[in-house]
Each structure stands twice: as structure tokens, then as C-alpha cells.
Write a structure and sequence with these properties.
Distance between the termini: 20 Å
Low-confidence stretches: 150-158
Helix content: 25-40%
CATH superfamily: HIT-like
Organism: Gilvimarinus xylanilyticus
Number of strands: 6
Radius of gyration: 15 Å
Strand order of the largest sheet: 4-5-3-2-1-6
CATH class: Alpha Beta
CATH architecture: 2-Layer Sandwich
Number of helices: 3
InterPro entries: HIT-like, HIT-like_sf, HIT_Hint
Largest sheet: 6 strands, antiparallel
Pfam family, one: HIT
GO molecular function: catalytic activity
Number of domains: 1
Shape: globular
Structural class: alpha+beta
Protein name: HIT family protein
Mean pLDDT: 89
Order of helices and strands: HEEEHEEHE
CATH topology: HIT family, subunit A
Length: 158
């Protein structure tokens, strides 16, 4: 049974689900920062996914990056899978701007994490969910705490 890594549960808000992946929003408001997590048990690397799931993840990642680039008018989209701290397979999608606090370097550890103001959080999640609507994406409870996410479900009530 799929279970979301504790660190991801603590560090993110849920936005919705694609057919393969859970879509999360990082709690760090310094950047528009989304994370895709394939809902597959014991998956730590891309090659742990079936060939079909690999293709689906690439499709979901490309769709998310395209939407984030459009919605946030990014100068550059950074997409990365590291797994050094959180071993569960997850793909970071970060909209970068030439005037962001870490540009042009990586975002990790550059500046302290910044909490979202409630209205900014709601707006960011709404923009993403609306732009991704349809084509295999389902929005979940806006801004929901994902501490209880353990398995795919139609809705998350937290």
C-alpha cells in the first residue's frame, strides 16, 4: 500500500492527483514549488517504475511544468529528482525567476523557508488546480494538510 513519506507530509500541501501521481505544493512560499509523487509502493528511482508508469510520469511532469511556466510566467523551470533526504521517488518542479532569492543557484538552503499567507496559498493552489483541470487531473481539498495521506482516494478530508 502506498504511503507518503513523513517529510513530504510535513513540508507540503496537497493540490490534487494525476492518474499516477499525487501533486503537492511546497510550504516554502519563496518560490512556486510543486512536487509530483508517483503513488507506487517502494519506489525510490525512476527505473523502479514500470515502463508504462515511467511514460505517464514524464507526461504528468511535462504537463505540470508547462502549466507552471504559463501560470507563473517563469524565467526558467527547474525539474529535479534528488532523493538524498527523502528517498521516496518525487520530482520537484520549481518556477524560477531572475529576481528570486536564490537565482541563479539552487534553491536548497539559500534562504530560510517562508510561510504562505493564507490568501496567497489559496490563490496559488486555485490557479494551479484550475489550469490543470481535466486531462487526468483531479483537484483535492485546497490547502489540505496531507498528514493522513496513505493511499489513493477520491478526496482527502483533513
Amino acid at each position: 500500500m502506498f504511503s507518503l513519506d513523513q517529510r513530504l507530509r510535513e513540508d507540503c500541501y496537497v493540490v490534487g492527483r494525476f492518474s499516477l501521481s499525487l501533486l503537492l505544493l511546497s510550504r516554502d512560499a519563496n518560490y512556486p514549488w510543486c512536487i509530483l509523487v508517483p503513488e507506487r509502493e517502494n519506489t525510490y528511482e525512476l527505473y523502479h517504475l514500470s515502463e508504462e508508469d515511467q511514460q505517464q510520469l514524464i507526461h504528468e511532469s511535462s504537463r505540470l511544468a508547462e502549466v507552471m511556466d504559463s501560470v507563473f510566467d517563469a524565467d526558467k523551470m527547474n525539474i529535479a529528482t534528488l532523493g538524498n533526504v527523502v528517498p521516496q521517488l518525487h520530482l520537484h518542479h520549481i518556477a524560477r525567476f531572475k529576481d528570486d532569492p536564490a537565482w541563479p543557484g539552487p534553491v536548497w538552503g539559500k534562504v530560510p523557508s517562508k510561510a504562505y499567507q493564507p490568501d496567497v496559498l489559496e490563490s496559488r493552489i486555485e490557479k494551479l488546480a484550475n489550469a490543470l483541470a481535466g486531462s487526468g487531473f483531479t483537484a483535492l481539498t485546497e490547502g489540505a494538510d496531507i498528514s493522513s495521506v496513505t493511499a489513493p482516494a477520491p478526496r482527502i478530508d483533513c
